[in-house]
Amino acid sequence: MKWKDFCLIITIQDQLPVMYAYTAELFPTEGRSAAMGFTDGIGHIGGAIAPYLILPIALSVGIFSITGYSWSFIFMGLTALIAGIIVIALGPKTKNRRLEDISETIVFKDEESN
């Protein structure tokens, strides 16, 4: 394993606790555990399907001959960066707010759009 791969792995591992904490704050208290279980399950399904979609594309493009397996870590890092930018730009701000207030804000915004 190269040093850059190690750094990418550490970066990916650092984002997971933040992602889970932020996602849990967005759901109402009454259904938080069920909602987190559902979204986590969707993530696991995506993780199970992704190798069957991405690997054939990578083999057909010949990316392994260019970068080896480092491209997979770079891809994960880039998708995490893009997701972070989207959350910062569009996600509700949760700092110094009660969980009930955050949930109410999201529920009311959803009801107003319907």
Alpha-beta content class: mainly alpha
Helix content: over 70%
Number of helices: 5
Distance between the termini: 51 Å
The total count of strands amounts to 0
Mean pLDDT: 77
Order of helices and strands: HHHHH
Instruction: Report the portion of residues in β strands.
Output: under 5%
CA-based shape: elongated
Task: Report the oligomer.
Answer: single chain
Please compute the radius of gyration using only Cα atoms. 18 Å
Low-confidence sequence ranges: none
Largest sheet: none
How is this fold's topology laid out?
Blueprint (H helix, E strand, L loop, with lengths): L2 H23 L6 H30 L1 H5 L2 H21 L8 H15 L1
Describe the structure concisely for a colleague.
It is built from 5 helices and no strands. With 114 residues, it is an all-alpha fold.
Throw out a few tags for this protein.
114 residues, 82% helix, mainly alpha, single chain
Question: How is this structure best described in words?
Answer:
With 114 residues, the chain is an all-alpha fold. 82% of the residues lie in helices and 0% in strands. The chain is built from 5 helices and no strands. Helix 1 (3-25) packs antiparallel against helix 2 (32-61). The longest helix is centred in the middle third of the chain and has 30 residues, at 32-61. The protein starts with a helix and ends with a helix. The mean pLDDT is 77.
